[in-house]
Design brief:
Chain B: This is MaoC family dehydratase. The complex is a heterodimer of chains A (185) and B (155). Helix content of chain A is 35%, strand content 28%. By secondary structure, chain A is an alpha+beta fold. In chain A, a hairpin with a 6-residue loop joins strand 3 and strand 4. The two termini of chain A are 30 Å apart. The model of chain A has no long low-confidence stretch (mean pLDDT 90). Chain B has 155 residues and is α+β, with helices and mostly antiparallel strands. Chain B has one domain: Roll (Thiol Ester Dehydrase, Chain A), CATH 3.10.129.10. Chain B is elongated. Classes of the chains: A alpha+beta (185), B alpha+beta (155). Chains A and B meet through helix 4 and strand 2 of A and helix 4 and strand 2 of B. Strand 2 of chain A pairs antiparallel with strand 2 of chain B.
């Protein structure tokens, strides 16, 4: 989230907006990354149990990622507009589970939402917090097409680095010493 | 009812635990990183070198979703296109262990870890695939597990 870790409320739902999947973009994505016949060939796809073309699950999740980043940017703009300094979103260490429940077909409009279900301070990265995000995507009939439990990092606002760590980070910048320190820690 | 597209492919009965699919060496260059990120993951550390240097990753790095997509492509070419695949059920334990920096070369393996018949759908089995993607230093960059449906030949 582009909010400071301290400002993120557990169980608050963020609406990430919708995306209309066209046949062309389903085929384009799958041609590059997931060229199975039911993702790229509408004729052959009729013989599959899906009965027609469906989007690659990885494609729908990538679109969900895009919607999430767009929502973060909008939140950042909103906070700047209020004269506040926005927080910092970090990279993600992983996804616990990602389940495809109903196929996405050409012409489907998928609506994404995100709920932070839990948060804690990072043990491994000082000054950062860990967020557990539940992402849900639903089609125009309200059927869930996928859910994902995404883990992400968010920066702490109220954090002062202990003097010992500051010194270590400073020393690590000295070329030879840095390598020795990296081997020690 | 036979599916003419998959009739001559390997079916559930033809698969064995322990089969290894190789992920061929791929260099993830700066252009690939920024073009994927612009479309799906427009965070500063995937788009802009200066912003990336100041970030937690310390330099321009590929979206983790891109690394996964490249692994998936290797699985389709090396395995799923040759079997009677009936679609993915989902991924689990996806871990981005180290960033893939622009210019890194990745490769790795995908292993058939488990095979079982579906309890609810006798026409399908479930093949479990473990991804292990590494960089040119041999460090792990991505691991994940995919559960994929495959048609059973005899019912």
């Amino acid at each position: 989230m582009t909010r400071w870790f301290e400002d993120i409320a557990v169980n608050e739902v963020f609406h990430l907006g919708s995306h209309l999947f066209s046949a062309q973009e389903i085929i384009d994505f799958a041609t590059e990354y997931d060229p199975q016949y039911f993702h790229i060939d509408p004729e052959a796809a009729r013989h599959s149990h899906f009965g027609g073309l469906i989007a690659s699950g990885w494609h729908t999740v990538c679109v969900g990622q895009r919607k999430m980043i767009d929502a973060l940017s909008a939140e950042e703009e909103r906070l700047r507009g209020l004269g506040q300094k926005p927080g910092v979103a970090g990279p993600s260490p992983g996804v616990n589970a990602m389940t495809f429940t109903v196929p996405v077909r050409p012409g489907d409009t998928v609506t994404f939402s995100l709920t932070v279900t839990n948060k804690r301070r990072s043990n491994s990265i000082p000054g950062w917090g860990v967020l557990f995000n539940q992402i849900t995507a639903a089609n125009q009939r309200g059927e869930t097409v996928y859910t994902a439990e995404l883990i992400s990092f968010s920066k702490l606002r109220d954090y002062t680095m202990p003097a010992r760590l500051k010194l270590l980070q400073g020393l690590a910048k000295v070329p030879l010493l840095g390598r020795v320190l990296a081997r020690m820690t | 009812m036979t599916n003419p597209v998959t009739a001559n492919r390997r079916h559930f009965e033809d698969l064995a635990v322990g089969e290894i699919i190789k992920i061929a060496k791929t260099t993830v260059n700066k252009q690939m990183v920024t073009s994927f990120a612009r479309q799906f993951d427009p965070l500063p550390f995937h788009l802009d070198e200066t912003a990336a240097k100041a970030s937690l990753l310390g330099g321009l790095a590929a979206s983790g979703w891109q690394t996964g997509a490249l692994g998936l492509r290797a699985l389709v070419d090396g395995f799923l296109s040759g079997i009677a695949s009936a679609g993915g059920l989902g991924f689990s334990n996806l871990k981005w262990k180290n960033p893939v920096m622009a210019g890194d070369t990745i490769d790795g393996t995908i292993t058939v870890a488990d095979l079982r018949r579906s309890n609810s759908h006798p026409q399908w089995g479930i093949v479990t695939l473990d991804f292990d993607v590494r960089n040119q230093k041999g460090a792990s960059v991505l691991t994940m597990r995919l559960a994929n449906l495959v048609e059973v030949r005899t019912q």
